[in-house]
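Posting this for the archive.
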Amino acid sequence: MNQDPGTLTYVYAAAYLTEPLRAALTGLHGIYGTPVHPLATDPPTAPTGALPPLVFAASHVPAHDFNEHDLKNHFEDLHWLEAVARAHHDVVQALAARATVLPLRMATVYQDDDRARSALTAQHTTLRERLTQLAGHTEIGVKLYLAAPPPTTDTTPAAAAPATTPGKAYLQRRRAQHHTRETLYGQAQQAAAAIETTAARYTTERVSHPVQSGALTTAENLLNDAYLVPDELAHDFTTALQDAARPFDGIRLEVTGPWAPYSFAAPPAPEPPAPDGPPS
C-alpha cells in the first residue's frame, strides 16, 4: 500500500495473520475513517512452526494531527480525544471478536510503514510469547464501590438520647455519621477480600488499576481491577463474583467485559532511529 507523505502510521494491535483476522480486517475502518490493513515485516518473518505471520493492524493518519507536538495539544481536547479513543477501541474490539490480539496503547504512531515494520521486527519474539499467553483468554473488569451512607435520623442509635443544645446535637450527628461510615468501610473490606479470593479460582492474571475519582464519580471507588480469564470460565467467573458480593451491604459491584486484553498487553517498542540518524 502506497503511503501519502503527509501521513503517519498508526498501529492498533498486534496479531497473527489468520483467515479470521483477514476477515475482520475486510472493510474495517479506524481513526478518521481510514482503512485498517495488516502490516508485516518486509519480507515477512518466517513462521514459527505452524504459526502464521505476525502483523500490526495499522492505518494511515494525517501527520498534522498525530505528530508529537500536535498530539500534546489534542490530548487537552476532550472531544477529539474521545473520538480517537472510541475509534481505536472499536478497531481492537472488532479484531478481538475474531482473533487473539495484543492491543497497543492509543496513539502508537510511527513515522511510516517501514519504521513500524522495524518496531515489529524488534519485538517479534516478545509479541509472539504474549499472544500465546493471551490465546483463549479475555479481560473482565471488576470495580467495587462504597454506597453512600444513609442520612442520620432521629431513629438512629446516636439520636436515642435527645441533645440539650445545638452543639451537642451536631456532635451526635457527626458521631452517627462516622459510625455508619466505619461500618460501611468494614463491609467493603470484607467484600473486597471475598471478591479477590473468588477471582483467584478462575483467573490467570490480575492487574490493579488506580481507583477512579473526580467530579464524574458519583460513588467512592474502592477497587478497580482487571482479570485475565479463560474464555470458557468467563460466565462462571461473573456469576461467582456476584454471589461473593451479595452478602455484603453498602457496596456495589460492577463487572464489565469481555474486553480485548488491554490491561495485559505489552507496551509498544519505541520507534527505532532512521538508518542515517543518530541512535536514540
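The beta strands are 7-16, 37-40, 54-62, 101-103, 109-110, 137-146, 205-208, 220-230, 251-259. The longest helix spans residues 166-200.
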